[in-house]
Amino acid sequence: MTMKSNRRISVKLERVSKSYNGTRVLNEVSLQIEVGEFYVIMGPNGSGKSTLLSIIAGTNPLDSGHVEIHGHNLGKDDSDAKCVIGYVPQDNFCSSFLTGRENLEYFAGLLGFSKLQVRERIERVLEMMQLLPHADKRVANYSGGMRKKLEVATALLGDAKVLLLDEPSTGLDPNVRKEFLSLLREISEEGTTILLVTHIGEDAESASKVGFMVDGRIIIEDSPENLKEMACLESKVLVDALPRSQELLEILASLDEDCIVAENGESLEVFTHSPMELIPKIAHSLQNAGFKLNGIETRPPSLEDVFYHLTEVSIRGEAT
Ligand code: ADP
After folding, report:
1. I need a surface site. Which of 174, 256, 283, 289 has the fewest CB within 10 A?
2. Are strands 162-166 and 85-88 parallel, antiparallel or unpaired?
3. 97: Cβ below 6 Å to ligand 1?
4. Is 263 exposed, middle or buried (CB count within 10 Å of its CB: 0-12, 13-18, 19+)?
5. For residues 31 and 188, is the Cβ–Cβ distance under 8 A?
6. Which residues contact 50 (CB under 8 A, 6 or more apart)?
7. Between the CA of residue 265 and those of 205, 261, 262, what are the distances in Å?
8. How far, in whole angstroms, is CA 98 from its chain's centroid?
9. What are 192-215's pLDDT values in tens digits?
10. Which atom of ligand 1 is nearest to the CA of 51?
11. Ligand 1 pocket residue status of 49, Cβ below 6 Å
12. Beta carbons of 97 and 140 less than 8 angstroms apart
């Protein structure tokens, strides 16, 4: 056993790099995550998130750099490091033919606990993930959210101190996603460190810290609140007007010299400091220019907006 070098640091990465077939996917990533933190790495598909997570989980070797989990060095005290990690990769790994409890019994068996310990631990993780009422149903009949909770439950069986989650909310509908994320937040508040990687902005809203990843580097990190402040995006006005044209964009951009106009699917987004002054101006100018205004509404900026404005890279339009 290695002595903990710093009690408060749960996951520490120093200049971690990784290439596949000569292409660099991780570029000297350094990171420190404190015990009990809910840290979310947000980035577009292909930016290296899964690779980073699998390296921390010890299932993928790094090329250079250093990883320490609760004071245990990966590459030196691997079995100690792996003992404190619970890893939930992207692909489903629980059997649909078994019940939730049977799946947990199978994984607990692999961990080598006694029968009594297995029973106690299974009850505990089922309760933590609010799955007790569904424990004896076959996983084939679980919803997507229940299946994901079961996978997190299996990762928690061995008293994980660090939970690594790869895109866990993909495919969950917004309400289920919200409930799932607040459950994760509770687990982190009870002292388990959570590192979650995602390309979905909502996943990062409940985080204590968010790192933005682009091309194998974490280029900025802070709390969601501070990141929003940093991006200086106070308010967003969504404009649904036809026909879509360059002239429409130019009119919107001309109404407020500090505003930023962006296209997002059906709507145009105008980021502004003064939405209430801007809205009547938009309605008036578009009508005068002969555009059909179908709708106009204000929304707070999302972390996806913040990501785009701070990195100039869009994480939108990715498959969810
Ligand atoms: P993300 O999780 O952000 O989508 P990944 O870590 O999965 O990113 O992938 C980063 C890049 O590395 C992608 O271009 C991907 O195609 C490539 N990649 C991932 N795993 C492998 C592998 N085992 N062999 C070769 N290339 C890979």
Report:
1. 174
2. parallel
3. no
4. exposed
5. no
6. 89, 90, 166, 167, 197
7. 22, 13, 10
8. 29
9. 999 999 999 999 999 999 999 999
10. 6
11. yes
12. yes
Cα angle 130, 135, 137 (rounded to 5 degrees) comes to: 130
In the numeric block, which tokens belong to residue 283? Answer: 């309605």
Cβ of 318 less than 6 Å from ligand 1: no
Q: CA-to-CA distance for 298 and 49, rounded, in angstroms?
A: 32
Domains and CATH numbers, the chain: 9-229 (3.40.50.300), 234-300 (3.30.70.2860)
Give this prediction's pTM. 0.86
Atom of ligand 1 nearest to the CA of 45: 4
pLDDT digits (tens, 9 = 90+) for 136-167: 999 999 988 899 999 999 998 887 899 999 99
Nearest CA to ligand 1 atom 23: 20
Q: Which protein residue's CA is at the shortest distance from atom 24 of ligand 1?
A: 20
* Rounded (to 5) percent helix, strand, coil in the chain: 40, 30, 35
Instruction: Please give the number of the atom of ligand 1 that sits closest to the Cα of 43.
Output: 3
Q: How far is the CA of 277 from the centre of ligand 1 (A)?
A: 46
Structure tokens at 57: 């989980």
- Cβ of 50 less than 6 Å from ligand 1: yes
Per-residue confidence (pLDDT) for residue 267, from 0 to 100 = 79
Give the full edge-to-edge strand order of the sheet including 217-222: 85-88, 162-166, 193-198, 38-42, 209-214, 217-222
Task: Give the residue-averaged pLDDT of 49-55.
Answer: 97
Q: Which residue has the tokens 């199978």?
A: 106
Task: Confirm or reject: Cβ of 201 under 6 Å from ligand 1.
Answer: no
Whose alpha carbon is nearest atom 5 of ligand 1?
Answer: 48
Distance (Å, whole) CA 113 – CA 158: 9
- CA pair distance 256, 277, nearest whole angstrom: 9
